[in-house]
Each structure stands twice: as structure tokens, then as C-alpha cells.
Write a structure and sequence with these properties.
By secondary structure, the chain is an alpha/beta fold. The chain is built from 14 helices and seven strands. A five-stranded parallel sheet has the order 4-5-6-3-7.
């Protein structure tokens, strides 16, 4: 059962004095309920529900200074919305795992909660699938019904732009979405894993060797077409983010649970690093000088990791256990086995 607000007693309005007279104003609980309802309508995936600009970590081991810069720009964008931003959005560019979606969701949540903006989150691939599914005669929704919320959202977060395999239909759909929002001067926040470079021409592609083609990384222009990439440069401010994959370093999935339900991953990682160091030292010592193996392991291993190890020359091979002879015949059947009956003659 929902608790009744003690300030407005559930009415949603508070009577306050302004200029010597009493007026009704929306209670804080009503504002909070409205913000919660708008956040739910934004369709932010459950995985990102806890993402905010406050809990974004730009200084983890392996992070680049660009992450701190991206956070500053994100906060400045929220502060300046909507007057200073003037309909422009953000294009967050960088490799996987650097926090592009985290920042995009953090911006969206603050614009909804603090500015009252109507927002919408969409994964690029899921959006294309819904549009494709609308062509199915068994589905009631039409393409326009699927895309109308995307066109009309005051703030749209389009995650993983370019992730779908490019085709003429994909390019036309992307152009339709971006052009509609561009013409209506609606704010679009986009994340992409592809570098913000132009599309390679057919002539340049023909001049590349097979090895060069295989080693070449696709660009955003390759994935959405150079015309649309050029349009993005006008409707969004590009923010580059670099660094090592945060999910690989800090949030690797694990079922290991330590005391009080805490994840044991950091301890396991530390032990694995110690074992790896000892193994490398062992291999290096084995290649150079056998007697130095013992000292190399001792130097590489952490304090207390290896205690009271016997020296190699003190190790004595244990005698192998004497192998028992296999049981055959009656002995194999056990002490209660009776003699086998004689075979009956066919004439008996």
C-alpha cells in the first residue's frame, strides 16, 4: 500500500503563502511521482536503471583522460538544456566498455527528472527489428506507429548506432529517423563503437590488398553511409571516449560469492596474477639455469604464498605401489561362488 504524503495528505497540492495570499502549488510527492512515471515511459533497460552521472567512474585503472572530459561535457549539456543546447545532441564515440551508454542514460535521466523532458531510450538493433516486424501482416502495428514515438520524443537516446549490418534498407531507415529529428530540431544522444570517420570509397577499397581489407576497421561512415554521418556532425557534438574495457576489468561476470554476499572476483584475480608471475619466472629460469628455479619462484611469489618448500635435491620419489594380480576363475566370483555346473549333453 502506497504511503500517504504527510505534507499534502495525498491531494498532490500544498497551500503556500506568496505575496501575502495563499496559493496552491504542486507537492513534492506529486513531482516525484510524475518523474518516476516519465522515467518508466522512457523505456530504459533494467541493466542501466542504476546508471547516473554521479556514479560514473572515469578514473578506473586503464581509463583515459577523455572519460573525465566526457563526464564534464555531459554535465554541461544537462545544465545548458534546452536553451544553450538549441536542439543539438551528443555523439558519444569510443570502443566497447568505456561507459558511453552509462553517460547517455545518466543524461537522459537527469533531463527527465530535473527538466521534465519526455525521453526515450532505444537500442539501434531492436528498433530496426521492430520496424522490420511491422511488415508482417500478422502484426497489427505499422511502421509509422513504431517510429512515431522515435520521431516525437523530446530527447532520444539511440544506443549502438551502426551495430546492424549495413544495407540499402538500413540506410534508408536511419536517414528517415535522423532527418525527421534534424528537421524538428529535437535532441538526439547517440552512442557508437565505430570511429567517426568517413566512408571508404569504392576506388580506395579496390586498391587495398586482401590483408589490408581484413585488417581495416570499419568506420561510422561505412555503417550508416557518409551522407548520414555528415548530417550527424551538424546535429550532434562529437564526444570521444577511450580506455580499456571497464566490464572486462571491473565487472566480469562471476558466480563466486565471498563473505556477506560480496563478489570474490578481485581476490581470485589477485591470486591468478601471483600464479602467472610465478609461472613466468619458472619458465624463464628453466630456460637459463635449472638450479636457479627455486630462487626465481621464491622471488616472484608474494610473501607467504609458498612456505617451507622442500629443495629439489631433497625430494625423494615415493615407491610405486605394488600392483595386485587380477583375480580369475572362482576367486573372481568371491568366497560364496559355487562350482560351475557341468554342461548338459544334448541327449540328456
Amino acid at each position: 500500500m502506497e504511503e500517504i504524503c504527510s505534507l499534502c495528505e495525498g491531494s498532490g497540492l500544498r497551500i503556500v503563502e506568496e505575496g501575502g495570499r495563499q496559493v496552491a502549488r504542486a507537492c513534492e510527492c506529486r513531482v516525484a511521482r510524475r518523474a518516476a512515471r516519465m522515467l518508466e515511459q522512457a523505456q530504459i533497460p533494467r541493466r542501466y536503471e542504476e546508471c547516473t552521472l554521479e556514479n560514473f567512474e572515469p578514473k578506473y585503472d586503464g581509463a583515459d583522460r577523455s572519460l573525465q572530459s566526457a563526464l564534464v561535457q555531459a554535465r554541461g549539456f544537462v545544465k545548458g538544456y534546452p536553451v544553450e543546447t538549441d536542439g543539438k545532441g551528443l555523439l558519444l564515440v569510443g570502443p566497447v566498455g568505456v561507459g558511453k551508454t552509462h553517460i547517455a542514460v545518466g543524461i537522459l535521466k537527469e533531463l527527465v527528472q530535473e527538466r521534465g523532458a519526455h525521453g526515450l531510450f532505444y537500442d539501434y538493433r531492436e528498433l530496426l527489428k521492430e520496424v522490420q516486424n511491422s511488415y508482417n501482416q500478422k502484426v497489427a502495428a505499422t511502421e509509422l506507429e513504431v517510429l512515431r514515438p522515435v520521431f516525437e520524443a523530446e530527447v532520444l537516446v539511440l544506443d549502438e548506432l551502426g551495430a546492424a549490418k549495413p544495407s540499402d534498407w538500413v540506410w534508408d531507415t536511419v536517414a528517415h529517423i535522423l532527418n525527421s529529428r534534424y528537421n524538428d530540431r529535437r535532441t538526439t544522444i547517440i552512442t557508437t563503437n565505430f570511429q567517426n570517420f568517413e566512408e571508404i570509397t569504392k576506388t580506395e577499397l579496390r586498391n587495398l590488398t586482401d590483408i589490408q581489407k581484413a585488417a581495416r576497421e570499419e568506420t561510422l561512415g561505412d555503417r550508416i553511409g557518409e551522407r548520414m554521418r555528415s548530417r550527424l556532425q551538424e546535429m550532434c557534438v562529437a564526444v570521444e571516449m577511450y580506455g580499456e574495457d571497464y566490464r572486462q576489468l571491473k565487472k566480469r561476470a562471476s558466480f563466486a560469492i565471498g563473505p556477506k554476499g560480496a563478489s570474490a572476483t578481485p581476490a581470485l584475480r589477485s591470486a591468478a596474477e601471483a600464479l602467472r608471475s610465478a609461472a613466468e619466472a619458472l619458465q624463464s629460469a628453466a630456460e637459463e639455469d635449472i638450479p636457479s628455479i627455486s630462487k626465481a619462484i621464491q622471488d616472484a611469489a608474494p610473501e607467504g604464498f609458498i612456505a617451507q618448500r622442500p629443495r629439489i635435491d631433497e625430494c625423494v620419489a615415493a615407491p610405486e605401489p605394488e600392483q595386485e594380480k587380477p583375480l580369475v576363475g572362482r576367486a573372481r566370483m568371491g568366497r560364496w561362488a559355487s562350482p560351475c555346473p557341468k554342461r548338459l549333453n544334448e541327449n540328456d
